[in-house]
Each structure stands twice: as structure tokens, then as C-alpha cells.
Write a structure and sequence with these properties.
With 556 residues, the chain is mainly alpha-helical. Helix content is 33%, strand content 5%. The protein is globular and about 90 Å long.
């Protein structure tokens, strides 16, 4: 009898569990493909109440694009869930508009907004014969501790091409009295007027103010700011039946297919612009002189000459201004000072410019360029930090320290600094200086393992000319390979830049020993250098395992 009651209780529990799972799967099953475990970009975890009080339920799982499709199938639009404010702009909050000056809703009021709005819609949809979501009492259909469908969103940023598509667009209203439309998106907060206004030529990145944890008077965090600006604008264009409009579905920005489609659209737009982006109309400098002022009026200069920065050239080499200006588009020194301040995360100006591991730093970006196959053959086996020699410093730090009147350039007027920077940039070489062909040995015979194989006859001149050809369009090589013989150091890595470097055997003589830790023996040095170069440059022949590809086997 006891066993029978126990089985009865277990059976009842199983039925309840199955029913709960059924409710959950019914909620998920109303959307195509949602019942599987495949991640979706439109999955939103609604945890609004948790920000106000300790919730008694897990966050609610909401699939935005799936709901948009379900509403469209029933002849409804975004306004079924999103209201408009007094200016006619769609609010991104569900079934409510939070106007300025109004008190925020309490947790109980928010719960009513979601429960009344969602459940009533589900009941109506079911009454019309459509598949619908959970109804009253089916809490686990929405509130899931472990969502059956996880979220997976690709980052959707605005690169330079997409940006140009916007400020070139005739669909976006032009600024008052201007031919540009930048004021439709960019604004600053006017403390006196207590509102946002547009100020031409002082446009900032959105992230400069809309951070993850914004400080008053900024109210919107990064994600909310983008959605509030972009999605509502795109939706208004759709409502106006404009010729073109941007995406409003999550998958169109954050899904792999959506991103691929966007890249295709960008490629077409770029082709229509002649293959080159028009320059951003913000009056940014063509050339800038990066000079560090003394810490106080009595202090001497840092001792390093200023750097002439070709801003116009670098604009064409990046996909987005954020490649360098990760938050604000002000001068680097406005956040990164010689001693470091809180605004710049206590990263000093020296660290910001010279961190070899950070692609946003000058040195780090240049080092990443060295991974290109044309460069990697030499630089792949040469630590990037090793290139930071006194000669390398002078390649950048070579602008005038003082102006014609003897004033430190750091304190000179902006126009004088710009002229000095432009003059230095104009004097830079356009192409890598080359060693005369006749001065390059045509062949080099390497007979390290002559007891087993014939000496390797390396086509030295052919290799050198091939390397020169690979760097012919590289401005970095033209500037940093300061003398024609500099490229020789790619293989002769500890020798000075000379046409008569010491042989490899002068350093790599004995096999590896504890006394020479880190310095391989001669055979290992040759193989590591040659094979490493071939691998870095993607040269498939001869293969690393093909000994006779380099060493002809002896007849005996």
C-alpha cells in the first residue's frame, strides 16, 4: 500500500512537471525553430524588476524578432507593444512612456504592466486560433532559471563606411542652415538650457557620454542610447514609407546573416563612392604635432622631440575612428597625461603610445602590421619590442622642438604646430631605400651538415629582391627601414645594419648548452630561421620535411 501511494505521488509529480514543461515548450514552440537549443540574437532577458527589488521569479525570456513576426502575421505592428511620446517618437520600453519629470514606476506597477500586457495579448492570440505564449498561472513559460534558448549576439558597431552612408543620406534631415545632417544623431548637453543641443564640428562618439554606467545628466547607457537613436529612427522611416530604412529586427544587426547582408550593402555603397570614402566633414586636422609640454613652467622639456602625426593618412587605414579614439575623439593627451590621471584610467601618455601589445597604441598597431605575410618572414622571429631602439625612436620623434621664435612647440599656436607637422610628413620617404642589386650576393652556400648532404645553395639575391618587392608600398618600411641595409637585420638579427654582417656561425657555433640558454646551435639556428620564415610567409615549397628540397643528397 505504501509503495502504491509513493508511486501515485511520483506519478502526480511527473504529470505536474510534464505540464510545466509543456507550458514552457508551448511558449517557445509558437516561434519557428525556437524549441531547439540553437542560440538566437533576439533573446532578451527581462529583468527590469530585479533592478528595483529582489525578484521572486527568474528573469523572463523574451524573443523579440519572434514576437514581431507573430504580430505581423496577425496584422499588428510595433505599436501593439511600444507607445509613442508627445513628439511622436516610439518608446523602446514595453507599453509605457517615461516622460521627463514623471516619477518612475514601482516594481509592483512594472509587474502589472508586463503581466497585464503580455498575458492579455497571449489570450487574444489564442482566441483567434494562433499559437500563443503562456497565460495566467503558466509562470515557468516565461520565467526560466536556465533558458532553453540562449542569447548570442554579434557586436554591431558603426564603422566608417556605415557612418558615411548615414551622413551622405538625403533621407536624414539636414542641420539648420547646413549641408550636413550630423545634428540628427550627435548632441551635447547644454547645462544652461538643461537640454541636448547640436554643436557643429564638435561631434563626439556616442560612447564618450553614454557609458555603461553614465553619470547625470546623461541617463542612457551605451546599449540603450544606440537602440533609442538607431531603431526609432529606422522605424520612423519605415512608417513614412521612405525609399530606404535601416534594420529594426535584432537579427538584422546582431545576427550573422544580418551582418553579412550589411557588409554586402556597405561594399555596394563604397563602390558607388568610387571605392574611397569621402572625408568626414568635421574639420579634423590633416596633420597634428604630438608634443608633450613640461609639467610646470620651470621644468625642462621631456627630452623627446615631438612627433608629426599624419592624421589624414591614418583615417584611410582604419575601419573606425575608435581604432585609436576608443572613447572620445579629442587629442590623446586630453585623457592620457605624462603622469596618468583617473580620466585616462591612469594610463600614461607614454604607455598609451608605446604599448607593443595594444593595437590602439602607435607601436602596437605598427607591430600588428608586421604580422602580414610580406613582413612576417623577418619580423615573426624578431620580438616587436626589440625594434624599440634609439634609431627607431628618432623615426617618429624628429619634429622641431621649438618654433622660429624659440618657443617650445608644445606651447606654440595650433596653426604653427600644424605647419611644422605637415613639413615633417612631406619630407618622409615614400619608398624603401634599396641596396644596389650588384651588391647583394647572388648565392650563399651553407654547408653545416655537409657530412650527410651537399651544401645548400641558397638563392640569396632572389630572396632579398622578393622581400623588397613585398614592402614596396609600405609606408612603415619606407620610414622605419632607415637605411638600405636595415632589411639585412631580419636574418642577421643581432648584427648592425651592414652589407658585411658576421656569419651565423660567429654566434651559433656549438649545439645548445645550458651555458648558452636561449641560443640554439648552428644547425638549429639555420633551420629555425629558414623554416620559420617560410611558415610565416606562407611559402609551401620546399616543405619543412623535405630535406632534399634545400640539400641535395650525396651520391654515396
Amino acid at each position: 500500500m505504501a509503495n502504491g501511494k509513493r508511486m501515485l505521488r511520483l506519478g502526480a509529480a511527473a504529470i505536474v512537471l510534464a505540464a510545466m514543461l509543456g507550458f514552457q515548450m508551448e511558449a517557445l514552440g509558437m516561434f519557428d525553430g525556437a524549441s531547439g537549443a540553437t542560440a538566437r540574437p533576439d533573446v532578451i532577458m527581462i529583468d527590469t524588476i530585479a533592478r528595483l527589488e529582489e525578484p521572486d521569479q527568474p528573469a523572463a525570456v523574451f524573443m523579440h524578432d519572434a514576437h514581431t513576426k507573430a504580430l505581423k502575421d496577425q496584422g499588428m505592428s510595433c505599436e501593439a507593444c511600444h507607445k509613442k511620446d508627445v513628439k511622436g517618437k516610439m518608446a523602446l520600453t514595453f507599453n509605457r512612456v517615461q516622460e521627463d519629470g514623471q516619477p518612475a514606476l514601482s516594481a509592483a506597477e512594472l509587474k502589472s504592466v508586463y503581466h497585464d500586457g503580455c498575458i492579455s495579448c497571449h489570450v487574444k492570440s489564442a482566441g483567434k486560433g494562433y499559437k500563443s505564449g503562456p497565460k495566467a498561472g503558466e509562470c515557468r513559460g516565461c520565467h526560466q532559471e536556465r533558458p532553453a534558448v540562449p542569447a548570442a549576439r554579434a557586436e554591431a558597431g558603426m564603422d566608417n563606411t556605415l557612418h558615411a552612408m548615414h551622413w551622405n543620406s538625403k533621407l536624414i534631415q539636414a542641420d539648420a542652415g547646413q549641408r550636413t545632417n550630423c545634428g540628427s544623431c550627435h548632441h551635447i548637453y547644454d547645462e544652461k538650457a538643461k537640454k541636448t543641443v547640436y554643436e557643429k564640428d564638435k561631434e563626439e562618439t556616442c560612447r564618450a557620454c553614454h557609458t555603461e554606467s553614465p553619470a547625470k545628466p546623461v541617463t542612457l547607457a551605451t546599449e540603450a542610447a544606440f537602440h533609442n537613436q538607431c531603431v526609432t529612427c529606422h522605424q520612423s522611416l519605415i512608417e513614412k514609407k521612405a525609399e530606404k530604412s535601416g534594420p529594426v529586427a535584432c537579427a538584422d544587426c546582431h545576427g550573422d546573416k544580418g551582418l553579412a547582408a550589411r557588409k554586402g550593402a556597405e561594399a555596394k555603397a563604397l563602390a558607388a563612392m568610387g571605392g574611397t570614402l569621402p572625408r568626414l566633414p568635421r574639420k579634423q586636422p590633416d596633420a597634428a604635432l604630438m608634443a608633450v609640454a613640461p609639467l610646470n613652467k620651470d621644468a625642462k622639456s621631456t627630452g623627446m622631440a615631438p612627433v608629426a602625426f599624419d592624421h589624414k593618412f591614418h583615417e584611410t587605414k582604419t575601419d573606425t575612428c575608435r581604432a585609436c579614439h576608443h572613447k572620445s575623439v579629442q587629442a590623446c593627451s586630453s585623457c592620457h597625461t605624462p603622469l596618468g590621471v583617473e580620466k585616462g584610467g591612469f594610463v600614461t601618455l607614454d604607455q598609451a603610445m608605446h604599448d607593443v601589445k595594444n593595437k590602439r597604441s602607435c607601436v602596437g598597431c605598427h607591430a600588428s602590421e608586421q604580422t602580414r605575410p610580406q613582413c612576417a618572414g623577418c619580423h615573426g622571429l624578431r620580438p616587436a619590442g626589440k625594434a624599440l631602439t634609439q634609431a627607431a625612436c628618432k623615426t617618429c620623434h624628429n619634429a622641431p622642438v621649438k618654433d622660429a621664435q624659440g618657443m617650445l612647440m608644445a606651447a606654440a599656436p595650433k596653426e604653427i604646430r600644424a605647419e611644422a607637422a605637415a613639413a615633417v610628413i612631406a619630407a618622409r620617404p615614400e619608398h624603401q631605400a634599396r641596396v644596389a642589386v650588384d651588391a647583394i650576393p647572388e648565392f650563399v652556400n651553407i654547408g653545416v651538415i655537409a657530412q650527410d648532404y651537399k651544401a645548400s645553395r641558397m638563392p640569396h639575391r632572389k630572396i632579398v629582391l622578393k622581400l623588397y618587392d613585398g614592402m614596396k608600398d609600405s609606408g612603415l618600411a619606407a620610414n622605419f627601414h632607415s637605411v638600405p641595409e636595415a632589411m639585412c637585420q631580419g636574418c642577421h638579427h643581432n648584427a648592425p645594419a651592414t652589407l658585411n654582417p658576421p656569419t651565423c656561425a660567429s654566434c651559433h657555433a656549438k649545439p645548445f648548452t645550458r651555458e648558452d640558454e636561449g641560443r640554439p646551435g648552428l644547425k638549429a639556428a639555420y633551420h629555425g630561421q629558414c623554416m620559420g620564415c617560410h611558415k610565416a610567409m606562407g611559402i609551401e615549397k620546399p616543405a619543412a620535411t623535405n630535406c632534399v628540397g634545400c640539400h641535395e643528397k650525396k651520391a654515396n
